[in-house]
Amino acid sequence: MIRIDRQPPADEVPPSRRRGGLAAIRGAGQDNPRSFFCRVCHRCENGLWVPAGWYLLERAPGGRSRHIRLGLYCSVTCLVRAGEMLQEGAAEHAARLGLPDEEQVRRERNRVTETAQTLLAGGMTVRQAADSLNVPTFTLKTWLKEAGIHLEPGSVPAHAAVPAGRNPVSVLNEQTQRGRIGTVTWETVVAGPAHAPSFTVTATALPAGKTGPVPATGTGPSKAAARTAAATALLAALGIG
Q1: Cβ–Cβ < 8 Å for 82, 70
Q2: How many Å apart are CA 43 and CA 22, to the nearest integer?
Q3: For 61-90, what is the mean pLDDT?
């Protein structure tokens, strides 16, 4: 737990705790002046008490232990900058140790989620997909839920293949190999913010015996989900099921 205390102006402090316009946080008997140093802008003030308006950052270790003072900052700007410096330091530390940064973690999570959706659409259970990807089952369920994929126990996603238990993309490929349809083309459009993108995939095929192409569109929180939805819609449009 992190606690941030702002020292009040002198006129808001009880008379017994006022000392020359500075807010007191010291106990009785501590009458020696000291220096108060802002860790960001290096501003320094001397006095008996923490200057009014400054921010004291403390960490509570829990239990009856005393709070650990992490820093003293003279303004909100310095306090915000301190948070940025902590993030920069964490990134540098991760780089020195060869640990993945937040962006790498996000990309890996998206990759695992997309692969899991493909495996689930192919008939795997969540546990089987998690074992295949070396991810805890609970973690995979959480990631799928946050990606907007809601599963019933023992089921596969609602956009699963037709026929049941088959990957619709694989079914399209089989139909192409058998000569029932021409080569399927895919177009992908990404919209939305980077942390919550929305994918729209358009699948187009030329069925045997027809003069015009047949398009179908699918959307989803990942490219794999949108591709699966588009393949399902295309199979329905072609009357394959």
Answers
A1: no
A2: 16
A3: 82
Residue bearing tokens 């659409």: 121
Please report which residue ranges of the chain form alpha helices under DSSP H. 76-97, 102-121, 126-133, 137-146, 168-177, 223-238
Between CA 11 and CA 22 the distance in angstroms is 9
Per-residue pLDDT of 150-168, as tens digits, reads 665 444 444 433 444 567 8
State how far the Cα of 186 lies from the Cα of 211, in Å rounded to an integer: 19
Q: How far apart are CA 187 and CA 203, in angstroms?
A: 7
CB 55 within 8 A of CB 72: yes
CB 23 within 8 A of CB 52: yes
Q: pLDDT-derived band of residue 22, with 50, 70 and 90 as boundaries?
A: very low
Residue 205: helix, strand or coil by DSSP?
Answer: strand
Average pLDDT over the chain reads 75
Cα–Cα dist 240/163, whole Å: 9
Q: Which domains does the chain have, with CATH numbers?
A: 2-97 (no CATH), 102-146 (1.10.10), 168-238 (3.30.160.20)
Report the pLDDT value the prediction gives residue 93, as an integer from 0 to 100.
79
- Kindly give the interhelix angle for 102-121 and 137-146, rounded to the nearest 10 degrees: 90
